[in-house]
Design goal:
The chain has about 120 residues and is mainly alpha-helical. About 45% of the residues lie in helices and about 0% in strands.
Length: about 120
Amino acid sequence: MKTPNRHMLRWQIAIQEYRGNMAIVHKDENIHKNADGLTRWPLPNNIHNPAYVPEEASPQIPIEGISVTDLNTTFFEEVRNIYTQDKNFRILFQLLTKDCKDNSLINALDEIWRKSYD
């Protein structure tokens, strides 16, 4: 071999101990098509493949701290009172709790709310 590349050198080293018992003969690719197809047969990328490369997992972001906020019941009461004072909310609540459409309630909604309800 005139100028072997690194792959050929690796194979020469691997089979060096068998050198006296075998002969390596080059066959043209047109004659030796069966081996060419077998050497390029793709293997699945799983643990049974000797060339298995684990796929990269998504990077994990460490949690530096956890903040827990406990809201007073007065906050929830205030939100509840604001909703009950809102005319459109009361009408929507009545519409959603009824089984049938009540056109008088729908017409009582403000224009923007009525368009969103339809």
